[in-house]
Amino acid sequence: MLRALKTIGQAMAQAEKHPELLQKAVQMGDSDTPPKYLLPELDPLLQLLKVYGSELLATIPFSQGTGSSYIVNSMDEATEDLDASWVRDTQDLDDLEATGEYDGGVEFPYKVCAKRGKVSTVLQDLGKPREEIFQEVVTECMQRIKRDMVRNFLFGDSASNPKAPDGLFTLCADSQKIQAGSTDGGDPLSLGKMDVLHDLIELSEPDCFIMNKQTRRELSALLQQQQSFPIWDKIPAGFRVMWYNGVPILTNKNVSITQTYNGTTTTSQTGGSAASIYCLSWNNVFIKEKIPLKMLALGTLSCLYDKFDLYSLLTPVLRQKLSLSILEGILYSETV
C-alpha cells in the first residue's frame, strides 16, 4: 500500500519535470489552459489501491464493460421461473414457447464516480516533500472513491439520484426480499430467517453474505446462544472472515444500520434503526467498468495547489434475479 502510494507520488512529481513521458489526454481551451495528462503507468497501482483493505471490494468481480450501457439478455418475470420440458424426439418445440420470453436486453447504464484532489504547493514551500503530500491526498481521495463505490453497489437508486447507478437493494426482485418481522422499526435477527435468506439463492450455492459488522456481532451472539460458536477462516482475497452455513460473511461499515423500516418494506437507508443482510452468487452479480479507475493530472491551476482527478465509469449488474436475496427490517441492537 505505502509502496504504491509512494510510486504515485513520485510519478506525479515527475509529471511536471518530464511531461513528454506521459500520455497526453485532451487539452481544452486556449494556450493559457494548463495541459491535462493521463497517467497510464499508474493504472495498475490504482486498481490495487481500489481494493486494498476492503474484503468486499477485493471480492467483487470487476471486469471490462462495453457499449454505452452493459446489456443483459435475460428472461422476463413471466418466463424466468418456467421449468424445462420433456419432449418426444420428433416433437415441434414451438408449442413450448411461453408468452413474454426474453426482455430483449436489460440495460445497466454506466455512471461516473469521481473525486478531485488538491496538492498544496504551500506545504512544499515549507519543506514537506512533494511525494509525501501526494500520498496523503491520494489516500484521502481513494477512501472517498471506495466508500461511494460500496454505497452505490449496495443501495444506489437512480430514481432519487440520476447521476448514480442502481445498486443491489434497488435491483433485487421483491420476491427475493424477506423481512425479519412485521414490527414498525424492525425485529431482531433470527437464525431461521438467515437460513431462508440462504435458500432463496438458486442456480448455484451462495458465495457470500454482506452485512455491517454490528449485524455480524448480533449473528455471532445468536450462534453462541445455541452453543454453536462462529467459524472463522480465510477467503481467496486473503481476509480472515466469519462463516455461516458454509458461506463467508463480508462486512463493510457502509452497509446501512440506520434504515427506516415500516413493518413491510424499507423506505429509506437513513433515519431509522434497521439493517439488511445481502446474500448472493458472484456468477450473476458483478461490476462492469467501461473505464477502470484512472488519474488525470490537471497541472498547476493556482499559486496554492496542483490538481488531479480520480474517476471511473462503471455500473453494478444483476444478471439473474435468483442470484440475489435480501433480509431487511433487522432491528439494530445496541446491547451487542
The top-level CATH class of the largest domain is: Alpha Beta
User: The CATH topology of the largest domain is what?
Assistant: Major capsid protein gp5 fold
Radius of gyration from the alpha-carbon trace, in angstroms: 24 Å
The H/E string reads: HEEHEEEEHHHEHEHEEEEEEEEE
The CATH architecture assignment of the largest domain turns out to be 2-Layer Sandwich
Broad structural category:
alpha+beta
The tally of strands reads: 17
**Distinct helical segment count:** 7
Proportion of strand residues: 25-35%
Helices and strands, with pairings:
Elements: H1 2-17, E1 23-24, E2 37-38, H2 43-51, E3 62-64, E4 69-72, E5 106-109, E6 111-120, H3 121-125, H4 130-155, H5 168-171, E7 177-179, H6 191-199, E8 208-211, H7 213-225, E9 231-234, E10 240-244, E11 247-251, E12 260-261, E13 266-268, E14 274-280, E15 285-300, E16 305-318, E17 324-331
Task: Outline the structure in words.
This protein has 2 domains: 2-67 and 107-161 and 287-318, 2-Layer Sandwich (Major capsid protein gp5 fold); 174-284 and 320-331, hypothetical protein PF0899 fold (2-Layer Sandwich), CATH 3.30.2320. It has a 7-stranded mixed β-sheet. With 336 residues, it is an alpha+beta fold. It is built from 7 helices and 17 strands.
